[in-house]
Write a structure and sequence with these properties.
Elements: H1 2-20, E1 52-54, E2 58-65, E3 69-78, E4 86-91, E5 96-99, E6 110-118, E7 124-134, E8 140-150
Parallel strand pairs: 2-8
Antiparallel strand pairs: 1-3, 3-6, 4-7, 5-6, 7-8
């Protein structure tokens, strides 16, 4: 009986240990903890941080017909002194999809976060948010898109 209990406990341990390491996938860490100069002692060098600066954090697509798909590229520059790492970009709705650079952005360089909006099945004023997670302080930046979606039969 005791031997069976030990075997069962060992099996549970192996299963839990295998799944806990896979949380970040292939040993990767989220970008918001990589190269962060903040320390537990409170001493940090804010000048070493990357700084993400967007040309604009809002885009209005204007009036769209329901079913229309549109895309906008939010341009950004790393205005800081450290490498900028974007760990993920999430959207407030499944109708909005984004693409972003996966490689580090050097100081002075930039890129785009491409956002696509599908107005299929949507009517009226649509406001959507896009959250950019990176190794900046603060670690999140919000982008917004807007569109006024009308039904084709109302035109």
């Amino acid at each position: 009986m005791r031997k069976n209990l030990l075997v069962a406990a060992f099996a549970v341990f192996v299963i839990l240990a295998g799944t806990s390491c896979a949380r970040h996938g292939k040993g990767e860490l989220p970008a918001d903890v990589i190269m962060n100069p903040n320390t537990a002692s409170g001493q940090s060098d804010p000048n070493a941080l990357p700084v993400i600066e967007f040309a604009s954090d809002f885009h209005d697509f204007g009036k769209l017909m329901s079913g229309e798909k549109v895309t906008y590229a939010f341009k950004f520059t790393n205005k800081g002194k450290g490498l900028l790492l974007i760990s993920k970009v999430s959207t407030s709705c499944g109708c909005t999809v984004s693409e972003y650079p996966k490689e580090p952005i050097k100081p002075g360089e930039g890129g785009t976060i491409d956002v696509s909006f599908d107005s299929e099945g949507r009517i009226g004023l649509q406001n959507k948010t896009i959250t950019v997670f990176s190794n900046t302080q603060p670690p999140t930046n919000l982008l917004r898109i807007q569109a006024s979606v009308v039904d084709v039969k109302d035109m």
